[in-house]
């Protein structure tokens, strides 16, 4: 029998709740991620995926509970990808403009811009990737590339936390489903479906 203790998780999220404008966005969320691990946050629009990532990055504070363990250090310099994969160009455009490539960048398609942002993510080399809807606008080939770079990052001990409403293949990932904030009313079609009528 081995007496070795299991390694401590790099990220420990303990009973996280989050209120915004007196509204409960996240309720009692728990998660742990080890080096080389992956956490996939699934949820409908408005369920709190981005809010969760922003808390992890230290951009906002939870109303209750504990975000990253001391071991991970609170420094947001460890994280990358949150903003870089958001929106059309993330915050790369000013830098590209400075280098005289702004016009070229603006002529890229949405998927090409996403690929450019993935390249940037690889180049800045941070241990923890927080990716908000990384596969939106990517074609099937692009999604495969994304899955590949995530797998390679994890092989080197990196961690990945992905918020998505699209399917993504990440081996041995922990999946965390956030409940919908505004569940839509059940229609008669849903009822027929649910009761197999
Ligand atoms: N600063 C804020 N003040 C008030 N409400 C906020 C704030 N930030 C987010 N919210 C609300 O919190 C909820 C969750 O938003 P969030 O962006 O985290 O959802 P999401 O799961 O990432 O959605 P999507 O899939 O549409 O990107 C939304 O209803 C949003 O209106």
Automatic annotation (TrEMBL):
SMART domains: AAA. The keyword Aminoacyl-tRNA synthetase does not apply. InterPro entries: AAA+_ATPase, ABC_transporter-like_ATP-bd, ABC_transptr_haem_export_CcmA, P-loop_NTPase. Keywords: ATP-binding, Cytochrome c-type biogenesis, Membrane, Nucleotide-binding, Translocase, Transport. One of its GO terms (biological process) is cytochrome complex assembly. One of its GO terms (molecular function) is ATP hydrolysis activity. SUPFAM superfamilies: P-loop containing nucleoside triphosphate hydrolases (SSF52540). It comes from the Eukaryota. Residues 11-195 form the ABC transporter domain. This is ABC transporter domain-containing protein.
């Amino acid at each position: 029998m081995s007496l070795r203790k299991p390694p401590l998780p790099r990220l420990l999220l303990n009973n996280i709740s989050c209120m915004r404008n007196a509204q409960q966005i996240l309720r009692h969320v728990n998660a742990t991620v080890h080096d080389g691990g992956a956490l996939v946050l699934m949820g409908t629009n408005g369920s709190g995926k981005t809010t969760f990532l922003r808390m992890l990055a230290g951009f906002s504070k939870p109303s209750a509970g504990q975000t990253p363990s001391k071991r991970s250090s609170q420094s947001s310099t460890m994280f990358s990808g949150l903003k870089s994969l958001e929106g059309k160009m993330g915050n790369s455009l000013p830098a590209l403009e400075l280098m005289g490539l702004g016009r070229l960048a603006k002529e890229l398609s949405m998927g090409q811009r996403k690929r450019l942002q993935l390249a940037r993510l690889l180049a800045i080399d941070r241990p923890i990737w927080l990716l908000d809807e990384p596969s939106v606008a990517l074609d099937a080939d692009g999604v495969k590339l994304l899955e590949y770079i995530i797998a390679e990052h994890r092989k080197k001990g990196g961690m990945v936390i992905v918020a998505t409403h699209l399917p993504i293949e990440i081996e041995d990932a922990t999946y965390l489903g956030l409940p919908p904030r505004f569940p839509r009313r059940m229609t008669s079609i849903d009822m027929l479906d649910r009761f197999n009528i």
